[in-house]
Amino acid sequence: MEHIVTKVEKQELEIHYIKKTLDELVEQNKIQNEQLSKISDSISKQEVILEKVSNLDDKYTEAIKRVHYRIDEQLRLCEERIADNKTKIEKILNQKNAVCPKHDVLEKDIEILRKQQEKHAKIFWWVSTAIIGLVITAVVNSVLK
User: Fold this and answer.
1) Cα dist. 101→32, 34, 142 in Å?
2) In the chain, what are the domain boundaries?
3) How many CB atoms lie within 10 A of CB 133?
4) What number is the average pLDDT over the span 39-58?
5) What percent of the chain has pLDDT over 90?
6) DSSP per residue over 85-131, as a string?
7) pLDDT, greater one: 5 or 39
8) Rounded CA gap, 140 and 57, in Å?
9) Phi and psi at residue 28, to the nearest 5°
10) What is the DSSP letter of 145?
11) How far is residue 21's CA from residue 3's CA, in Å, rounded to a whole number?
């Protein structure tokens, strides 16, 4: 019987050791579950952060496209303005070199006025010569009388 008692005591010790080991495993399992829960929370936070970064990247890409579009549009407008200004300058230079119809009319009017002035100058000269001649003739007649 002693043998049975020793066996029972030995088994009791082993059961106690198994119980202690199981309690330790349960405690470690709880700790691991808490750590896994923390890791899961961390992963979900990282997913949110990654989603925000992805959204920021998309928004940044769209913003850059809009900026480039605006820059290209402004460049196109500037090039159109430069081309318009070049054509306007060419027109002005061509008009400067070409005879303007109004300018031609003015030149003709000026020429006509010069001719009339020359005629009037001749008439004035002849009238003034005639008056001076009459005055001299009157003075000479009065002196001779």
Assistant:
1) 101, 99, 61
2) 100-145
3) 10
4) 89
5) 23
6) HHHHHHHHHHHHHSPPHHHHHHHHHHHHHHHHHHHHHHHHHHHHHHH
7) 39
8) 117
9) -65, -35
10) -
11) 26
Please return the burial class of 139, using the count of CB atoms within 10 Å of its CB with bins 0-12, 13-18 and 19+. Answer: exposed
CA atoms of 74 and 58, how far apart (whole Å): 24
**The residue type at 37:** S
State the pLDDT confidence band at 33, using cuts at 50, 70 and 90: very high
CA 59 to chain centroid, in Å, comes to: 20
Q: How far does the chain reach from its first CA to its final CA, in angstroms?
A: 204
Determine the Cα–Cα distance for residues 57 and 126; give it in Å rounded to an integer.
99
